[in-house]
Design brief:
Layout lengths: L3 E6 L3 H12 L4 E4 L8 H4 L20 H6 L9 H14 L6 E2 L4 E7 L4 E6 L4 E9 L22 E3 L14 E5 L3 H11 L4 E6 L5 E2 L8 H8 L2 H10 L18 H14 L3 H4 L9 H18 L3 H7 L12 E2 L3 H4 L5 E5 L5 E5 L2 E4 L3 E3 L2 E4 L8 H4 L2 E3 L6 H4 L18 E3 L12 H22 L4 E3 L1 H16 L29 H13 L5 E3 L4
Parallel strand pairs: 1-2, 1-6, 2-3, 4-17, 6-18, 7-16, 8-9, 8-16, 9-12, 10-11
Antiparallel strand pairs: 4-5, 5-6, 13-14, 14-15, 19-20
Helix pairs in contact: 1-15, 10-11, 15-17
Bound molecules: ligand NA7.
Length: 533
């Protein structure tokens, strides 16, 4: 006798929808959330300037037309507090609170073959059994702080952006060091610079950033948009990125250069990263084509930043645009024109150590009152490995994935029966409007469990053959693009010792959805049911 049909890990966008969808399908379900509030990424990343880089109208649930109609976003790109309010509203509206246990971290889960169930242990010392174990723990939740010698000796406070104090931090009059210039560093830097005595930005790799052109959503726009939301969502589901993007459908290299400049300029002025990279068909597959967009972006940096030496240092080189997540900001580059901001190149002179009063590089010392790490995450696998997950025969997931993550359709993995991962490795998640990807995974898993019950089946697990074939396909598709060609979290390069594997599916959300539906329609082809293939 098992306690529950499903245990869900986490109550971010994935976990919140999962508990709703599973309960609506008649399953007993409970989610455990480590935080003292729901929201996942948007609960933890409450640093100043935190904002989504996907537009509000896209970065929201599509499962409920009533929710779509009643909620009003205030800005084109939603800021963290507004997303958090939205998710709390969803939990209220659908009465999800009784299904979520806050302040409780899942510490382990082990498969009991005799009971055909998972035993899930939690940080409060309790344990519960469930037929299915669903990780909704997120792709970017296990944060990464560099192992800098002497950090313990630092006398001032230090913060990671992903564990920002809820009461906020006052940097007024302080000398602040910021390490990291990815999406997060680029968002938080101008906010700190606006109040600090001095901000030192320690840059290891320059990043490409396009403008957001963020602005309030007009009521008239919202009314018009809501009148065709259903059709728009369907278009989004079938699209490449989970957001409909209009491109020229032609390669940039075949276009007259003046037309290219005109189109890029229009898209630069309109703001947003997806329209930029979706403008031409070859930008993410040909280095020569990518160089055209890269140079356009470098020109915009040179045009914005007054000091030519600083501008050159900010110009990204050595990797294709888009192979690291394209950042978005309206004020990052212009920030370097402030007298209280300095860019420190730690590529040529790395940080050597932290001393009680600051940071020492191989060439200089910087006296600091506070340090901020915007140094990213152990992406995709970090949150899964943080739990002690043990599959058939007690094999730890960490061992099964020693040479890199491997999952059939990015949703389940051989040797771990009845384990599902929402937006797991091998899915398009981080290369898409993740909210729609989450919905697709949750609905697929829900339908799978309902089908198993209807068939009188108890267990499901992918065959190694189907999994290997899928991962080979993931790899082939990626290798036909420029995506794997940067040292980024996409390939695990930001975590010392992590196997370098590109495990995201970049074949497009529409085709991926079709493949998942096809597998289901074929009676879950590629899966073993009740241990039988
Ligand atoms: P990212 O994109 O992983 O960026 C982390 C930044 O921190 C990046 O500039 C890194 O430089 C830098 N970093 C990481 N480790 C170090 C060390 N040891 N020393 C110096 N600098 C370091 O994380 P974000 O939080 O900005 O964004 C994550 C995702 O969240 C983003 O892609 C969006 O999807 C939302 P590097 O480039 O590795 O040289």
């Amino acid at each position: 006798m098992v306690d529950l049909d499903v245990v869900v890990v986490g109550a971010g966008f994935s976990g919140i929808y999962a508990v709703h969808a599973f309960r609506s399908a008649g399953l007993t379900v409970k989610a455990f959330e480590a935080g003292d509030g729901i929201g996942g990424t948007w609960f933890w990343n409450s640093y100043p300037g935190a904002r989504c880089d996907v537009e509000s109208k896209d970065y929201s649930y599509s499962f409920s037309p009533a929710l779509e109609q009643e909620w009003s976003w205030s800005e084109r790109y939603p800021a963290q507090p507004e997303i958090l309010r939205y998710l709390n509203h969803v939990a209220d509206k659908f009465d999800l609170w009784p299904l979520i246990q806050l302040n409780t971290r899942v510490t382990g889960a082990s498969w009991d073959a005799d009971a055909a169930a998972w035993t899930v242990t939690t940080s409060d010392g309790a344990s519960v059994t469930a037929r299915y174990f669903v990780s909704a723990a997120g792709c970017l939740s296990e944060f990464n702080v560099p192992n800098l010698p002497g950090l313990d000796s630092f006398e001032g406070p230090w913060y990671h952006t992903s564990r920002w104090p809820k009461e906020g931090v006052d940097f007024t009059g302080k000398r602040v060091g910021l390490v990291g210039t990815g999406s997060t560093g680029i968002q938080v830097a101008p906010e700190i610079a606006a109040v600090a005595d001095h901000l030192y930005v320690f840059q290891r790799t320059a990043n490409f950033a396009v403008p957001n052109r963020n602005r309030p959503w007009l009521e008239s726009e919202e009314t018009e948009f809501k009148s065709r939301y259903r059709e728009y969502r369907e278009e989004a589901r079938q699209s490449f990125l989970g957001v409909p993007v209009t491109g020229t459908g032609r390669p940039v290299l075949a276009e007259p250069p003046e037309d290219v400049q005109r189109l890029f300029t229009q898209r630069w002025q309109a703001g947003g990263g997806m329209p930029f990279l979706g403008a031409y068909t070859d930008l993410l597959v040909s280095q020569e084509a990518n160089d055209v967009v890269a140079e356009f972006m470098r020109d915009r940096i040179r045009e914005t930043v007054d000091d030519p030496e600083v501008a050159e240092l900010l110009c990204p080189r050595g990797y294709p645009v888009g192979a690291k997540r394209l950042c978005q900001s309206d004020d990052y580059y212009a920030m370097y024109n402030r007298p209280n901001v300095s860019l420190v190149d730690i590529r040529s002179a790395p940080i050597e150590s932290v001393y009680p009063g600051g940071v020492k590089t191989t060439t200089d010392s910087y006296d600091l009152d506070a340090l901020v790490f915007a140094t990213g995450f152990d992406a995709l696998t970090g949150a899964l490995f943080a739990m002690d997950i043990r599959g058939a025969g007690g094999v730890p997931l960490r061992t099964a994935w020693e040479t890199g993550a491997s999952a059939y359709l990015g949703v389940s993995t051989a040797g771990f029966p009845n384990l599902f991962m929402i937006t797991g490795p091998g899915s398009p998640a981080v290369f898409s409007n993740v909210v729609l990807s989450i919905e697709q995974h949750v609905e697929w898993v829900r339908d799978c469990i309902v089908w198993l019950r209807a068939q009188g089946r108890t267990t499901i697990e992918p065959t190694s053959a189907a999994q290997d074939e899928w991962m080979a396909h993931v790899s082939d598709v990626a290798n036909a693009t420029l995506f794997p060609k940067a040292d980024s979290w996409y390939v695990g390069a930001n975590i010392p010792g992590k196997p370098r594997v590109f495990t995201s599916y970049v074949g497009g959300c529409g085709p991926y959805r079709a493949k998942c539906d096809e597998v289901a329609a074929a009676g879950y082809a590629g899966f073993a049911l009740d241990g039988l293939t």
